[in-house]
Design brief:
By secondary structure, the chain is mainly α. The protein is 78% helix and 0% strand. It folds into two domains: 98 residues, no CATH class; 71 residues, Arc Repressor Mutant, subunit A.
Length: 194
């Protein structure tokens, strides 16, 4: 009996064919939508080697998603864009986690230079995550305090808030100070120092 005729060899040959088909389907998908993936990474401030890393991560995601080559052929640009966006955000989060971990290991005097040297690429992501945390902290406030604090954070003065809500200045001031104190407490509980 020849090796090619054994049942185990047939299974390996089938697996190899499946791997080749999936690899070819992923290559075709990235040929069609590679620019979409690059734009998604560039929108997050990535370039050069970072975009290559995002594309490699997209390949891995497509490999996991497409158990059959036919599924990969039906991919849309939107799917690839979402996969690339997720890959870019994951890359930025991993970087930030490594940077924070290295800052914890360094002596306190070394903190200032590394914090000032933070890459600009993840600044929008950090800002958005901070805004999300502030929004969640605001939702935890008592409704009357939440309204006053939201207006204050949007730039309204105490007198304006009192006039708009038709409350006394004393009530508005009291709710604002208590609301801001509650907000600070909520943010600290979430790891954000106001």
């Amino acid at each position: 009996m020849r090796v090619e005729e054994t049942p185990g060899f047939a299974a390996v040959r089938g697996w190899a064919t499946d791997v080749e088909n999936r690899s070819a389907a992923i290559a075709r998908a990235l040929t069609r939508f590679g620019e979409v993936a690059r734009r998604a990474g560039a929108a997050r401030g990535l370039s050069g080697v970072d975009l290559d890393e995002v594309l490699q991560d997209v390949r891995i995601r497509l490999w996991r998603a497409g158990a059959a080559a036919g599924k990969l052929e039906a991919l849309t640009a939107a799917y690839v864009y979402r996969a690339a966006t997720s890959a870019a955000i994951d890359l930025l989060r991993r970087r930030r986690a490594r940077r924070e971990q290295s800052m914890e290991e360094e002596p306190p005097a070394a903190h200032a230079p590394s914090a000032a040297a933070a890459p600009a690429a993840d600044a929008p992501l950090i800002a958005q995550e901070t805004l999300d945390q502030v929004e969640r902290a605001l939702e935890a406030l008592v409704p009357s305090r939440r309204a006053v604090v939201r207006m204050y954070l949007k730039g309204y003065g105490r007198e304006e808030i009192a006039a708009l809500l038709r409350w006394s200045e004393a009530r508005t001031r009291n709710l604002l100070y208590r609301g801001l104190d509650d907000l600070r407490r909520e943010l600290r509980a979430r790891g954000i120092e106001p």
